[in-house]
Amino acid sequence: MEASMELDEIIDDITDSLVAIDDSKIPFKDFQPGVGPYGEPQLVKRIAKQLNELPKYKSKVITKRTPDLLIPHEWAIEFKIARPFGDNGNEAENWSVNLLHPYSGNVSSIGDCLKLAQLECPERLAVVVIGYEHTPPKIDLSPLIKSFEVIARQIANINISDRVETLRDNLVHPVHQLVRVFAWEVIKT
Fold first, then answer.
1. Residue 36 contacts residue 72 (beta carbons within 8 Å)
2. Residue from 82, 90, 100 nearest 149 by CA
3. Which of 15, 62, 130, 139 is deepest in the core (most CB within 10 A)?
């Protein structure tokens, strides 16, 4: 594996992995085909499998409880999914809570940042949000992402980098038509 992989490169590879999972048209459980309906643990496992097929990762990417995904000697990454609509096209309840709940010990992206900041490991740390939208968006994820950044920096006092963002459209699912991947390095102070 190349030394010092940058976050934008890894996020590009993760986003391409999501497109490959989508292109396979393998449904998650009884949901419609496409990457959008996958649950977080199942999706992270599929991403790791896709990354391990790329020579630069040398089949060393693993999934864990903490962090969700580990690229040894490179990155420890926690994931969250932002999915405003369900497989059935109805707006999901409480879909934004997984990003914004600003307390330690919970399962939000803020909680993940706090957990990563306490992690003793040689890897750089990152939090990633995989978000799905319609084309054009019925609910734009941008206000949620900006809110996460404000809460992380100004309320929870977490030192996060500038946002890295990728986008891919033309996904096969009729509701989850576009994927936006957002990432921030969590910088220990």
1. no
2. 100
3. 130
User: Does residue 2 sit within a domain?
Assistant: no
* Cα separation, 156 vs 46, whole angstroms: 31
Q: How far apart are the first and last CA of the chain?
A: 27
The answer, yes or no, to whether the previous bond of 122 is cis (omega within 30 of 0) is: no
Side chain identity at residue 128, one-letter code = V
Q: How many domains does the chain have?
A: 1
pLDDT surpassing 80 at residue 103: no
Question: What digits encode the pLDDT tens for the residues 107-159?
Answer: 899 999 999 999 999 999 999 999 999 999 999 999 999 999 999 999 999 99
Residue 1 lies in a domain: no
User: What is the domain extent for residue 65?
Assistant: 7-186
Give dist(CA 52, CA 165) in Å, integer. Answer: 22
Rounded to whole angstroms, the Cα distance separating 111 from 99 reads 9
Residue 75 resides in a domain? yes
- Token readout for 74 is 């490179």
- 161: Cβ–Cβ under 8 A, 6 or more apart, which residues? 7, 184, 185, 187
Name the percent of the chain lying above pLDDT 90. Answer: 87
- Residue 25: predicted pLDDT: 95
